[in-house]
Amino acid sequence: MRPFYENLPFICIFIAIICGVLSAVIQDGRKVYRLALMMTAVIAVLSVVLLYFLYTEDVSFVYSMGRFAAPYGNAIKAGPLQALLATVFAIVMGLSLLGGGHSLFQDILPEKQGLYFVVTDLLMAGLLALVYTNDMFTGYVFIEITTIAACAMVMAKDTGPNLIATIRYLFMSLLGSGLFLIGLTLLNSVTGYLLMEPLAKAVAILAELGQYQRPLVVSIGLMVVGLGIKGAMFPFHLWLPDAHGGATTSSSAILSGLVLKGYIVLLITLMTRVFGLQLMRKVGVSNILLTLGLLGMIFGSLAAMREYHVKRMLANSSVAQIGYIFMGLGLGTEAGVAAACFHILVHAACKPLLFICAGRLSTVSGHHRSLKNLRGSAYRDVAAGVGFTVGALSMIGIPLLGGFVSKLYLSEAALESPFMAVVLLTIAASTVLNALYYVPAILAIWVRPAWEEVRFIMMDVKPEDTRFDRLFFIADAVFIFLIFLLGIVYHPILNVIRAGIRLM
Amino acid sequence: MLLIPILLPMIGGVFVFRQRNEKIRNRLVLWLTIATAAAAATLCVLPERSLRLMTIEGALYLEVQSDSLAKFFMVLIVVIWLPVAVFTGAYLRHAGRGQQFQGFYTMTLGVLMGLALADNFVTLYMFFEMMSLLTMPLVLHGGTPAARRAGLKYLGYSVFGAGMALAGYFFLSHFLTDQSFTGGGALNLSLAAEHRPLLLIAFLVMMIGFGAKAGMMPMQAWLPTAHPVAPAPASAVLSGIITKGGVLAMIRVTYYLFGPDFLRGSWAQYTLIGLALCTMFTGSMLALKEKGLKKRLAYSTISQVSYVQFGLLLMTPGGMRGAFLQMVFHALAKDALFLAAGAIIIATNFTLVDQLVGIGKRMPRTMVCFSAAALSIIGIPPMSGFISKWYLASAALNSESQMVGYLGMAMLILSALMTAGYLLPIVVRGFFPGRDVLVERKEVGPQMTAPMMALGAAVLILGLFPNGLQAWISVILPQIF
Amino acid sequence: MYWLQALPVLIPVVLGMGLLILQPQNRKVRNGYIMMSVLLTAGLSFASIAVAAAADVTPACTLVRFSSEFSISLRIDGASMVYGTIVSALWPLITLYSLDYMSHEGHENRFFAFWIASFGVVLGVAFAEDFLTLYLFYELLTLATLPLVMHFMDEKARYAGRKYLVYSLSGAAFAFIGIVFLLSYGTTLDFTYGGVLDLAKAAGHESVLRAVFVLAFFGFGVKAAIFPSCGWLPDASVAPTPVSALLHAVAVVKAGAFAVLRLIYFGFGADFLRGSTAQDVVMTAAIVTIVYGAARALRTPHLKRRLAFSTVSNLSYILFSLTLMLPVGLTGALTHMVYHAVVKITMFCCAGAIIQKSGREYIYEFEGIGRRMPVVFGTFTVSAFALIGLPPLGGFAGKWMICSAAVISRNPLAYVGIGALILSTLLTTLYMMTIFVRAWFPVGAVDTEALLKIHDPNRAMTIPLIVLAAAGIVLALLSSPLIDFLRAVGSNML
């Protein structure tokens, strides 16, 4: 008789899907909003419980779905890492919806609001599935579901540029999915399996025997590239600034904070569970990931420096931060993967915080978007200003904040690598580049400009915009708390991650 | 007791600054100088003693003492300071801003006393820098942009020179048995022998550094710039005493730190002798070509002081004797010349040599003093300058190296000829202007002429009766050889 | 009482933020709050230092524990005592001065909030036990002092603030790499005299470690204004003068030098670095900066910028002494740190008084001001002499210790350093004396009418000036016991 907690992953996914269906039926936007929030809260709690059990017993389990026995059919595999990721994803999604709530109801047409939350719930389901999946088929299915849901999130705010951005996003995403599918097909033909365990065994045998070298390499490459396109790896990131920059605040937060990570988590699962880090290194895919990660770190920041529009700047910054993660993965060691996972958590906490704060600052400044017009906005909503500052400082890497710990562990992991010098110098250079655009942003919102300059902005501000937004405040506070948590009490979290990788 | 000659003028100088009334101020300056002279005289009579002022750290401390060299210099300084102080009182009536000038003048006296009384390098350095700082306002007294530039140039050279000496001392200090000045040298000879090249380089650097103050090449460029713009009394003390302050430092370094035995016959010695001879020659040559009176006298100083350096670099008792004599006589004579030049400027506003035709008729007393001093500088008996140059010449001939001997002699003679060439015409044309020029008498007041005449008389008398001075020098020499 | 050390670090931060929240409008109340905060912090700091000095084994105080190896902890050792004392002694004096100064400038609540907080952060740098703590407070120092630099919020201030922030954060990023390496190749991150490197682990990787050291040196050196990253300091002189006095004498630049001190003597270890090319590189950088700073100072007519370049040059005296990699070098560096702090702070306060009372910022406008502001220019002159290095005033002892150490090191490059120091002395004399000469010996027509409006500032500003100048003189006279103490610190006998 399996312990009860083993049902939790499936239950979480199921809840998400049910809520999605319910949201389609209930028409009232506000009610659906509350439903979505409750859903994320429940899923977070359940995931915490799961995490607790898995970590204390130091075990991971496989959970078959349906009647098909292995090696066919669908399965879920959950370990401490998956539970942790699920918890964080749920919390972040909930907070993002909280923080961006005000803008949400302003940006989206009332008749479409219910649909938005359908999409949100589906997205939650998709993410959970990507985290927990133990077979490639499920993985692929939910990749597609997530893609479409994400596109819908972008498109929720009905503007011309957004539609174009959505189309571009869709195009690139489907390209990525297509490549992934081809790679998957190749792999299946060569090995005959879709379930990850037998797949891993088959791949290992093939690698040892030296058979089907080229198809193996090609399939690895295609799958990595496919997921990379969807995860905004350099140079496939060009869709990101438009898509994330133009969307409504919650969408940007969720997209940057979570959706990208979902694909990357799947990539991690592939790398560790299916192919194994050693094979990745041997084939050279690790080096490619490393290089593209490094380039992303630099070019993402360079692009961010040129942006005046604060959300686009944050979106470009995401490219740079994703670069850190790919770099960590590209180091090809368990330490590197652990550091990358930690950074996934840190970025998942920071970027949505930055987005919701930017959104709020924009709201209290008459919905103006460029940094020039956001001058002094921190004084109009101090909590948003503080939140933005904390998030930015974490991105730069100030100690006591999460970003510093990521940098520390990524640097330490880099020491073992033969590319140590390049990696460390790029980390340092990237810190500098991050400072070059986050600092002016922080200064901009905290420097009070002369009255004449802001008069035209203040004229656009409507009274209901400046009213105290309680939901935003809660989200803001919790995010800040999370970032400090990740900065100070990181050791246990890192232990969980390490255990999780071991138990992959 | 040791501190009185140092502190009395320095503190008194502050009061001089504040005294607006000219008469009272002149009197104050005079009395302060006399009092300092009395204190110095007392110290000379008393036996040697020393006093530690302060410990900077560990083995580094500030200390003063009165050994025979210190006494010698104290007396020299005071003897010059007194007449120039009298002259200054009258001069400033025409030049203006007396408070400032006399205040710094008085304070400089104190610092110079300190320089003479210094017992170790750091104390010497301290007073040296203070001297540079306090005399700079004397140079830029004129208040023109040119004066300011000259003052800063002077300061720059002085400070840099002192800095070079300090740099050399950093190295030297590790090889000294005793940080205090010791007659004959304070080197730990066994240790020093191992590092001879390094120490010689340090010696060279220190000498060139202090030599900047004494007008030795290659750091003499401040002299000709400073003298024309400074008021005459300032030029007098600059040429007369301040340069000798540099020489004092050089003597302390050579004879009281390194010791002649260590240095004799080394390449450093010969290099420096070469520089001194070069300076001798170049100074005189530039004086020949120079049209401005004070600048000509400035170049003359460069040349004449290098005689002193030459003497002290020979590292023989005879050379040192010549150096001491030359120091005293040059100080007296050059100051007389500058005071005369000052008187001429006040009376006639002439600054160029060519304008001085017939000046002897106009200002006979001034020109008599000028002539006496000029003759001494050229080295014509029975003027005192002759004695010093004689000793220098014989010391050169007696030196170990024949090259030095011949070269030295040659330079001395050449320089003497050139000196005559740039000083005599002034005298001749002053007294014998030719028939066309008619001049009326317009002498300056007694307050100005008296000091000049005193100096001129001293030049003559010491030339006739040098024995007292010689005896004193004979006391110092055994201590350093 | 090991928790005592945490108080002077944390309390001022809290009090500072308190000022920001409470925002008292009554000047008397505000000034009282500020002085009380600063005096309280200084008192606590001295108490902790005294306790640490009396104790045989100095205890550590952990503020935050991340894991068994990482924590944010404070511990007062010899070097901490020196730096901590400098900071704690000078801060209250400058606060007194700045209360009067800032009353003319405005926005005092915001200013003093960060002012008080910075005090705590600097003490955090001084009292840090390990590199992680040092790094944290180092970054916080940048953030805490930024609003002070940008106080006026005009074009120039914003530009200066941005430049300062970017330079500092970049420097810290490079120093971070050094810390990561120390983490991997060292036994611990705690400051240990002689270095923390595990030589067995480091064997074979020496050149990499030394290269990383150079990187970290330049990283921390940004705050200590090493060439070529000294550009932020002169630009930062657009800040109000108390900030310049603080930045340029006590808080930021000395924190940079202090971090380098920790890096060399308590991190990588002087023995490990001595004689290597890495030492040559950093020594050369220090020597170049000495001359560069002095030369630029000479050419700058703006008074505060001139003093800023002078700081660049003098900081590199300290860095040069540190790069000698000898205990005597450490002693020399500490000596100059002490004397330069007192002298430079005095000069900046004088500069502030001059600018505020006469409105003149450029040297060529100073003709004849000396007689109108005798107290200010008097103290300025005394400090200038000390800076030039006139015995027995303070600067001489510092230069002496540094040059002696250079001679003892027998390193030919160090000899070049002595030459650079002498050259710098000359340049210092020139750039200080030109101010002095213009003020006291004016040339040409002097606008007496305009001059009549200028006079000495009131007591609240002149008293600190006189106290500082007197303190400088007293410290110089007491140089012997002070240097004995610093020598003990330098050889780790404390």
Key words describing this protein structure:
heterotrimer, A: 504 residues, mainly alpha, two-stranded antiparallel ribbon, 22 helices, 2 strands, 79% helix, 2% strand, globular, C: 494 residues
Can you put this structure into words, describing what you see?
The complex is a heterotrimer of chains A (504), B (481) and C (494). Chain A has 504 residues and is an all-alpha fold. Helix content of chain A is 79%, strand content 2%. Chain A has a two-stranded antiparallel ribbon with strand order 1-2. The longest helix of chain A has 32 residues, at 160-191. Chain B is globular. The model of chain B has no long low-confidence stretch (mean pLDDT 86). Chain C is mostly helical and 494 residues long. Chain C has 22 helices and two strands. In chain C, helix 8 (206-221) packs parallel to helix 13 and helix 15 packs across helix 22. The two termini of chain C are 19 Å apart.
Task: Please outline what is shown here.
The complex is a heterotrimer of chains A (504), B (481) and C (494). Chain B is mainly α.
What is the terminal-to-terminal distance of chain A? 23 Å
What number of structural domains do the residues of chain A give?
Answer: 1
What spatial form of chain A do the alpha-carbon principal axes imply? globular
pLDDT < 50 runs, ≥5 residues of chain A:
none
The gross shape of chain C turns out to be globular
- Radius of gyration of chain A, taken over Cα atoms and rounded to an integer in Å: 22 Å
**Class from secondary-structure proportions of chain C:** mainly alpha
DSSP strand tally of chain A? 2
Strand content of chain C: under 5%
Largest interface: B-C, 37 and 36 residues
Give the percentage of residues in beta strands of chain A: under 5%
Q: What quaternary form is this?
A: heterotrimer
Helix proportion of residues of chain C, in percent? over 70%
- For the secondary structure, the number of strands of chain C is 2
Q: What's the helix-strand series of chain A?
A: HHEEHHHHHHHHHHHHHHHHHHHH
Structure class of chain A: mainly alpha
